[in-house]
Specification:
The chain is an alpha/beta fold. It is 35% helix and 14% strand. It has a five-stranded antiparallel β-sheet with strand order 7-6-5-8-9. The protein has a two-stranded parallel sheet with strand order 1-2. Strands 3-4 form a two-stranded parallel sheet. Strand 6 and strand 7 form a beta hairpin. It is elongated, with a radius of gyration of 28 Å.
Amino acid sequence: RFISLFEQAGELTNLVFCQTVLDALDRRGRTRTMRNVRRIAADPRRCAVVFANEVFAETREPGAGGAARDMRAVLRAARWYQHHVDAQRRDLQVVLLTTRKDYEALQATGPDVQVWQLEDYVDAWHPELVEHYHSVEQATVDGDMDITTLTAAEHAQARLQACTQNSYTAHYSASDIAEGLRSGTLVRGKIRLRAGGGARGVAQGIIERTDAPDIVIGGRAALNRACTGDVVVVKLLGAGDKVQAGAGVDDAGDGSGDEDAEETLAVEQIDAGDETPMGAAEQP
C-alpha cells in the first residue's frame, strides 16, 4: 500500500524486505509491487536487501501462510537481525515497521525489537514524508492494498465479490421470475456459449428454440455469469429498448449480421438469485 513511500530515493535507507512479505504479495498477484521492492533492493543508494527468511533455518517460521503466521515470521526475522547486528555494532537498532493497529501488542512479544506503526515512524524521523504518507493513505483508504488485514483466500474472495457487484446486473427474485414467465415477459431456455462469437469477437450465448427464432445474447455483461448448459431466464428487449453496453447483436447498418437480422433478438438475461450464482436462473 505504501510502496511509493519507500521509493523516495535517499529518504528511507538501510531497509530489509523479508521474503515473507514478497510471498504474501505473490499470493495476492501484486507483481508490480514485488518488482518495485526488488528495484529498491538493487539500488546501491538505499543499502537495502531482500532477506530470504523463509529458507533460513534460524528464521523459518513453521505453519502455512496467513496473516498471523506471516507476522510471527517477520518478527522472528527482525529479532535474528537484531542479534546479528549486536555482534557487530551495539549502536544499531532494528525497527519493524507495520501498518497494523495492534502494533503495541506486537511490541509486547519481546523487548529486543522496536515495533513502530509506519505513520508514527515517518512523523518522528522523516517529517518530509508526512504529506506523502497521508496522500497515499487517503487515496487507498477504500482499496484492498493492505495485505496485513486479509488472508490470500479472503483477499481473492473480496476481489471476486467486488467485481461481481460492480460488473453484473442484480439477480431477479424467484417470485419476479415466476410472474414474468406467467405473463410472457420472460423466456426460459438452456444456453450454449460461443466464445468470441460475432463479427466483433464478443462472447455470445445462444438459446435455441424450435417454435421461435433463436435468442442471441451478446457480451459478458448481458451473459451475467451464465455457463453452457445453464437453464436461464431472459427478458426480450423490444426495438426501442436500450441494450446495455456490451450486450446485444451486431450494430445495424455496419454490414455485419444482416443475414440473421430477422432471427436474432437482443435480450437482457436475468438470474434467479444467490442460490444459482453461476447464472442458472432456474434449475430443471
